[in-house]
């Protein structure tokens, strides 16, 4: 499909919308609504002045989403780096920015990994997530901890908040099973304690041998092979306690533990299948949040967190002196944040947040630096908002102080990161124009600064500037066409001082030398169609165009080439038909050509692919419980493809989910 | 809007997404310079160049420089065998009618017809793993294995017939005074400061046993023999506070240090060619010295402006004395196709050719 026919499709779609457009009730944001727990519904997506994507439990079912990375794959501008299989690393990169530019929060507090600077999304079970929100640039919710403002994009994950109507406690039991030896039980219980408190506990366990067949193409030879050394065992448990201290104050406490033990299949090495790498991960954290609405104009929020994580890497090969390698890394974080929100007038709000984090990394490796980092972040937000116009200005001031026990200390850093966003509704129907700008940076990770011989202590932060212009449109034209939503955004990003690895004789070194410019466009469209009562069609489509060009150095073959692992075009869609008998959903994802190295040459090319999925699901309401059954066929055309070169993805696979939950 | 229109809209939406990427008219931004080999490849004389590729990426390849036409043929292995060479093909040697290629990551010795590059045998072993360097002597092929041994390959049966244990992570080998010398780098034992990587194993070729370990500087990786029975060893140091060191082992096992900094070297007759290209250097130091006296013979043996920016291999062409250098594309580009440089024996630039990624080994077909 050419670009012209694509844009004509966009135009037809938009004109259909406007023809049927009807006026829609509009409510301006109130102070309470700014609290992210209160903000629900899709309208936020079209209202916000920066691109936001929200996926709730219901959408999750309709979109056939099996895990968090899968949900993000259905979002325009998001590229999921998937190393394949159940235990494969999954990270996201948004609009061509590296995965370290995406922060991930869990129930309001940022998850951090000071060692790698990126969050492996395969660790977080989708079953436990009630809602997720991806914000590109700065959204309109200004009452947040300062760390939320420190990344180019942010993914917020929220676990469920129980609703107590009749029952005082809820139970949910689920088991998922499927191809490649998958067994995945999940358990949730919550209970109302007294009038004002509730507590919940959830736990899941996952096991998979991960052995799947794939087609290996080697020159003109094609062979059927099996992915070996990919067994995974992981589990997590989590407890929450929530107390409504007074009518205006609330306290949340969370305790979280995760453990995983996985074999790493590694990349395919031709003629050599002998891989014995293993990785063990443990993560414990506890977090506390206290919120109070003092009077009607002033609110206060305090957050605290302690985080501990261990990673143990094991490999066996005759080439090692002792026949094996055992590297262990331990990280610790102490975090505290205070934020105030002030609304002097109905249209004017301010917030100020101050965060402190202390991160430390220990390891058993030779000459380890034992680095520590103090991060002090202060953010001031001002927002003007009426029914027509929303303007948000943000200034983040960050101070990073480095400490080491061994060797030289890297420089400290102080920087101001501004951002600005505007949204304007020129006429009555819910049509909005938006524009945003954000200039921020990411600090070098501890691996980039200190790792063995490769780290470089003189690294500067990597800068990312984002410009976005777009429009959003939503309406409910008729009884049949219940809801229509359309968003389109064009953007320009610029990454400077990009941290890249270069070889240094036989090892590697890190340098701030990269320069990348991105120009792209993202489109989302969704519609809810009800031809009859209880018969609904949910239609969703997205697509992205992205030109991310490397302007690092003219002394390379790849000057002016598309950066690696970044498709120029990607898109997807789904259609779900929900009815009283059997719900059915079909999904498609399509990714264009990518390159595995900076040079966009034929040798480095990774073929485009299209993946199709099919899901059938139905709820059986019984006396006191609801039994849900769900069957998914992932990649039902058995497409053989790779996201990362020489990490083959599974072909067709099946999944069956049975769940029992008590009624509300 | 009626139902019919709706269905039309749905159909349109899905057609759009399906066809969006399905038919891909994307042009490769290919500035790919390689002359792919087509048709039957059969050569009489020239140089095979082993391009090691990027570690873990299965993009090792072989290029061939044809002496008669001065033409470079790229990807000759894949063209001849319709399959890839594998991961990290670092070295090769032509001996008799065959070429023996070591492919480190793939743990394979590819034995090919030296004129057509067609594979005769892919030798794999679980006893001797991770081949690194290959040389030939007196009817046998010797391969250093990164797992700490030297394997001897019989050229008639094309099987290993004997192994000898040396130090950890051996790299290059050289033959002098009827002994085989191999450097023990202990290169993977960085965590313990390369404790056992400070020696050269001297091996009796008749009994194929280790005679002794000769102490040298930390992390020796390159070795080359001169015509007077001396063996020159380049140790890389620890890439931190211990710099690279160049040493000579005399025929009576004395070790003498040369006061010269180098990161690459090769020996021809009694001339030691050194290149010093440490990290971040803007200029290469190319100094030729006498292996006997250590005196500088030529303070800058490469002339002209077109000097390799990121060399990984230097050797002297045994047929005509040309200086051959394999190089990455530039100091900052090590994943793209690189260059093979030819300078004449007086250091005048002759030609540079486009080859694969990381031209790290040369094998001569005569």
Structural features, described:
The complex is a heterodimer of chains A (664) and B (366). Chain A is built from five helices and 35 strands. Chain A has 664 residues and is mainly beta. Chain A has a 22-stranded antiparallel barrel. A five-stranded mixed beta sheet of chain A has the order 1-6-7-4-5. In chain A, a hairpin with a 3-residue loop joins strand 31 and strand 32. The longest helix of chain A is centred in the first third of the chain and has 17 residues, at 3-19. Chain A starts with a helix and ends with a strand. Chain B is mostly beta strands. The model of chain B is unreliable at 20-34 (pLDDT under 50). Chains A and B meet through helix 1, strand 24, strand 25, strand 26 and strand 27 of A and helix 1 of B.
Treating each run of at least 4 consecutive H or I residues as one helix, how many helices of chain A? 5
Give the CA-based shape of chain B.
globular
Portion of residues within helices of chain B:
under 10%
What coarse outline of chain A follows from CA principal-axis ratios?
globular
> What proportion strand of chain A?
over 45%
The CATH superfamily of chain A is known as TonB-dependent receptor, beta-barrel domain
- SSE order of chain B: HEEEHEEEEEEEEEEEEEEEEEEEEEEEEE
Helix/strand structural class of chain A:
mainly beta
Record field, number of beta strands of chain A: 35
CATH class of chain A: Mainly Beta
């Amino acid at each position: 499909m050419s670009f012209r026919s694509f844009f004509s499709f966009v135009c037809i779609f938009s004109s259909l919308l406007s023809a049927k457009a009807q006026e829609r009730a509009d409510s301006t944001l109130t102070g309470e609504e700014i609290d992210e727990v209160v903000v629900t519904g899709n309208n936020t997506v079209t209202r916000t002045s920066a691109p936001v994507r929200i996926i709730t439990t219901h959408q999750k079912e309709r979109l056939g989403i099996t895990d968090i990375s899968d949900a993000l794959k259905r979002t325009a501008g998001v590229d999921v780096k998937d190393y394949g299989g159940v235990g494969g690393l999954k990270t996201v990169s948004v609009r061509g920015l590296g995965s370290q530019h995406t922060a991930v929060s869990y129930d309001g507090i940022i998850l951090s990994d000071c060692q790698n600077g990126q969050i492996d999304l395969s660790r977080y079970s989708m079953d436990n997530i009630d809602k997720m929100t991806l914000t590109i640039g700065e959204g309109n919710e200004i009452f947040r901890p300062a760390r939320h403002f420190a990344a180019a994009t942010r993914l917020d994950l929220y676990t469920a908040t129980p609703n107590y109507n009749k029952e005082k406690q809820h139970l949910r039991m689920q088991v998922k099973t499927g191809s490649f030896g998958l067994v995945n039980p999940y358990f949730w219980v919550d209970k109302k304690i007294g009038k004002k408190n509730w507590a919940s506990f959830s736990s899941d366990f996952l096991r998979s041998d991960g052995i799947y067949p794939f087609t290996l193409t080697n020159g003109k030879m094609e062979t059927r092979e099996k992915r070996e050394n990919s067994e995974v065992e992981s589990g997590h448990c989590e407890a929450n306690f929530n107390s409504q201290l007074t009518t205006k104050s609330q306290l949340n406490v969370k305790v979280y533990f995760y453990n995983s033990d996985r074999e790493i299949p590694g990349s395919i090495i031709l003629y050599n299948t002998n891989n014995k790498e293993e990785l063990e991960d443990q993560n414990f954290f506890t977090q506390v949040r206290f919120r109070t609405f003092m009077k009607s104009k002033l609110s206060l929020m305090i957050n605290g967190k302690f985080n501990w994580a261990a990673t143990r890497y094991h490999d066996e090969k005759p080439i090692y002196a002792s026949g094996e390698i055992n590297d262990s890394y331990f990280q610790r974080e102490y975090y505290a944040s205070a934020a105030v929100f002030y609304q002097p007038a109905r249209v004017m709000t301010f917030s100020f947040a101050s965060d402190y984090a202390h991160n430390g990394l220990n390891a058993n490796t030779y000459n380890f630096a034992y680095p520590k980092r103090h991060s002090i972040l202060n953010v001031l937000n001002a927002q003007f908002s009426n029914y027509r116009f929303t303007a948000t200005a943000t200034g983040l001031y960050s101070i990073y102080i480095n400490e080491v026990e061994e060797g030289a200390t890297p420089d400290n850093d102080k920087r101001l990161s501004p951002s600005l966003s505007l949204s304007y509704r020129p006429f009555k129907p819910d049509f909005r124009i938006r524009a945003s700008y954000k200039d921020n940076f990411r600090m070098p990770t501890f691996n980039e600064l200190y790792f063995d011989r490769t780290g470089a202590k003189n690294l500067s932060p990597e800068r990312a500037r984002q410009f976005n212009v777009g429009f959003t449109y939503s309406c409910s034209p008729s009884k049949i066409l219940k809801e229509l939503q359309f968003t389109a955004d064009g953007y320009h990003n610029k990454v400077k001082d990009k941290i890249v690895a270069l070889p240094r004789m036989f090892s590697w070194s890190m340098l701030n030398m990269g320069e990348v410019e991105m120009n792209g466009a993202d489109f989302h469209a969704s519609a809810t169609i009800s031809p009859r009562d209880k018969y609904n069609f949910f239609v969703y489509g997205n697509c992205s165009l992205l030109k991310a060009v490397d302007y690092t150095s003219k002394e390379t073959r790849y000057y002016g080439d598309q950066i690696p692992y970044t498709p120029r075009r990607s898109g997807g869609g789904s259609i779900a038909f929900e009815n009283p008998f059997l719900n059915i959903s079909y999904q498609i994802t399509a990714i264009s050509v990518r390159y595995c190295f900076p040079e966009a040459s034929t040798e480095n090319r990774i073929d485009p692919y299209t993946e199709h999925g099919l899901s059938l699901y139905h709820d059986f309401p019984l006396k006191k419980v609801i039994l849900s059954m769900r069957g998914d066929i992932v990649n039902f055309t058995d497409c053989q493809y790779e996201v990362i070169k020489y990490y083959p993805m599974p072909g067709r696979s099946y999944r069956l989910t049975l769940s029992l939950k008590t009624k509300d | 809007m009626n139902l019919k229109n709706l269905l039309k809209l749905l159909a349109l939406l899905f057609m759009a997404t399906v066809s969006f990427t399905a038919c891909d008219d994307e042009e490769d931004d290919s500035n790919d310079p390689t002359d792919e080999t087509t048709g039957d490849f059969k050569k009489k004389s020239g140089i095979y160049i082993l391009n090691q590729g990027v570690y873990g990426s299965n993009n090792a390849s072989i290029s061939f420089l044809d002496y008669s036409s001065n033409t470079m043929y790229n990807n000759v292995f894949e063209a001849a065998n319709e399959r890839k060479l594998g991961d990290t093909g670092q070295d090769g040697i032509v001996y008799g009618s065959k070429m023996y290629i070591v492919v480190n990551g793939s743990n394979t010795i590819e034995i090919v017809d030296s004129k057509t590059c067609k594979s005769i045998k892919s030798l794999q072993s679980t006893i001797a793993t991770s081949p690194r360097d290959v040389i030939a002597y007196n009817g046998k092929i010797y391969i250093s294995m990164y797992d700490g041994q030297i394997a001897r390959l019989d050229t008639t049966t094309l099987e290993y017939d004997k192994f000898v244990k040396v130090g950890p992570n051996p790299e290059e080998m050289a033959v002098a005074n009827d002994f085989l010398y191999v450097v023990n780098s202990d290169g993977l034992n960085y965590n313990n400061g390369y404790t056992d990587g400070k020696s050269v194993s001297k091996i009796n070729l008749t009994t194929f046993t280790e005679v002794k370990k000769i102490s040298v500087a930390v992390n020796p990786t390159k070795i080359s023999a001169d015509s007077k029975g001396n063996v020159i060893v380049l140790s890389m140091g620890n890439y931190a506070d211990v710099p690279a060191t160049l040493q000579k082992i005399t025929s009576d096992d004395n070790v003498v240090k040369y006061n010269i900094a180098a990161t690459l070297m090769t020996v021809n007759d009694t001339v030691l060619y050194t290149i010093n290209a440490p990290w971040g250097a803007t200029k290469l130091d190319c100094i030729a010295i006498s292996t006997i006296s250590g005196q500088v013979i030529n303070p800058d043996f490469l002339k002209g402006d077109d000097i390799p920016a990121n060399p990984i291999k230097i050797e002297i062409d045994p047929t005509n004395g040309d200086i051959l250098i394999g190089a990455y594309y530039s100091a900052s580009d090590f994943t793209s196709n690189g260059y093979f440089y030819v300078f004449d024996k007086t250091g005048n630039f002759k030609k540079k050719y486009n080859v694969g990624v990381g031209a790290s080994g040369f094998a001569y077909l005569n």
